[in-house]
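This entry is set out below.
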Amino acid sequence: MDSLDLARQIADILVEKQAEDILILDLRALTPITDYFVICTGTSQRQLRALQQTIIESLKQGEAHLKAAGVEGTPESGWLLMDYGDVIVHLFEAETRAYYRLEELWGAGRVVAKIQ
């Protein structure tokens, strides 16, 4: 599975779990750190935790048996991060996402998909 397929698979999981404002951002031309960010907003701390757990379990049980290299943050902080190497997933509460504005910080990246 290539990195774009992984980003899309994660976005599909987020859609299924009713995350909001899902964005896949292509960063390959900007940084060697990762290929894509997948960013979304959860409506509550409980939903953030559910989104995180569903992504981790789905990717671990999928055909590629992927495990995150790192998982950071807590639902209480309003920002959870999962590092899958070529894809980094950011799960935000709305207020925290607005504060950190990753889309603006990485604004030179190409938007691959935006799902309201």
Helices lie at 3-16, 45-61, 94-100, 102-105. The radius of gyration is 13 Å.
